[in-house]
Amino acid sequence: MGQKVNPIGLRTALNHNWESRWFADKKNAGRTLFGDWLQEDLQIRARIREMRPAAAIARIQIERFASRVRVTIHSARPGVLVGKKGEDLEALRVALAKLAAGKEVFVDIVEVRRAETNAQLVAESIAQQLERRIGFRRAMKRAIQLAMDNGADGIKINCAGRLGGAELAREEQYKEGRIPLHTLKANIDYGYVDANTQAGKIGVKVWICHKESLEEEENAVNAKKGKVQKGSARK
Length: 235
Fold this sequence. Notes:
The chain is of the alpha/beta class and about 240 residues long. About 30% of the residues lie in helices and about 25% in strands. The protein is built from seven helices and eight strands. The chain has helices at about 5-10, 35-50, 80, 85-100, 120-130, 135-150, 215-220; strands at about 20, 55-65, 70-75, 105-110, 155-160, 170-175, 185-195, 200-210. The longest helix is centred in the N-terminal third of the chain and has 19 residues, at about 35-50. The radius of gyration is 22 Å and the shape is globular.
């Protein structure tokens, strides 16, 4: 099962949070709010990536309140989003306000410090190299080496399409470390993007397994090392 579904969707509410955090009734005064807000979220994400394609955006979180919409953009290049004296950020906010049906929009920027271990950014980096006619094996192996050097527990990269301009489409996959897709507790990050090459589209999928957080390791109970407290012995 772990090989067939999106690993982030499988682990949502376990060790991954929702990208859209809001609640809507199916119908309110004869109007379907859920479908309208869902379409707004898709349009907001598409508009941000369209206006700032070089910002290295890892993910976009959207929160809705009574009359406000808060958009949190996780980017490895926050300077591209902010611009000179915040001019680009204000222009982006105004553009998003037009899509939010008159609600007040707040835009927050969160910097992604280690882009080499973010699955979506790694997939986009490989896709950009394929579009620049760099060899797919070289791009995949370099991404694997950078991820492992930056502390990833494991990484798997899959490229499918007319690799190297071949007439027949095929699939290439490289893996290093451990990627336990069936283990729900494992912190698996997943990213997917299409590379538009002259030979056609090439799909790039990236799975990265992150090590468990220090907080989980410190709070974990080790039964072998655990000692019985005084006063708890049987009488």
